[in-house]
Write a structure and sequence with these properties.
Layout lengths: L2 H18 L16 E4 L2 E11 L4 H6 L14 E12 L5 E2 L3 E5 L5 E2 L17 E2 L4 E2 L5 H4 L5 E8 L8 E6 L6 E5 L2
Antiparallel strand pairs: 1-2, 2-3, 3-8, 3-9, 4-7, 5-6, 5-10, 10-11
């Protein structure tokens, strides 16, 4: 085979591989969920990280600060699960971020986040009105400098969710259509 023909085949193969990446689904149903952008209402959200939290590690213990008084620790059949979100207002007017979220398992069971006290937990997601091009978590905030760079939604889930995957985070805005992100567990 001539060098020219080999070079043409190599270029064609490189082009095909490059173009194959252009078809990446924005709503993956696999573990390729981190970094996906989803619109809910007028705000764009991005899943930074979602994972089970271990209250006995230094990093994860700080995420559990600010629990409502009387919140029981997870039982042997429950777990803490953190969803860290980033949001941006890409409109030309102020818009509110969502304050209504739900995780839905494959059985259709819905789980709501536990409201954390943001004055105690700097990672807690807080509903707010974002200025045009405004982001949450805000610049120079604890959450923006943290390892996840996202605002925390904390869930207490039954361990049965491991058998009822996939999990879907529903982002329900004050107005407009909801957004959904597949979660890895």
């Amino acid at each position: 085979m001539s060098a020219r023909r080999l070079w043409i085949i190599a270029c064609a193969l490189g082009l095909a591989i490059g173009l194959a990446a252009c078809g990446q689904n924005s709503q993956p149903t696999s573990v390729l969920n981190n970094g996906v952008y989803v619109d809910a209402g007028q705000i764009t959200y991005q899943l930074q990280v979602s994972r089970e939290l271990n209250p006995f590690t230094v990093e994860d213990k700080q995420y559990l600060a600010g629990l409502p008084s009387g919140t029981a620790s997870p039982s042997a059949n429950e777990l803490w699960y953190g969803v860290f979100l980033w949001a941006k207002n890409q409109t030309k007017r102020p818009e509110p971020t969502a304050d209504n979220f739900s995780i839905v398992d494959s059985n259709g069971d819905h789980f709501s986040p536990i409201k954390l006290d943001p004055s105690v937990n700097g990672f807690a997601w807080t509903q707010q009105t974002l200025a045009p091009s405004g982001i949450e978590p805000g610049l120079n905030s604890t959450a923006s400098f943290g390892p996840t760079q996202g605002g925390l939604l904390l869930f207490k889930l039954p361990t049965s969710v491991y058998s009822n995957r996939p999990l879907t985070l529903q982002i329900i805005p004050q107005s407009g259509s909801k957004g959904e992100i597949s979660l890895d567990l």
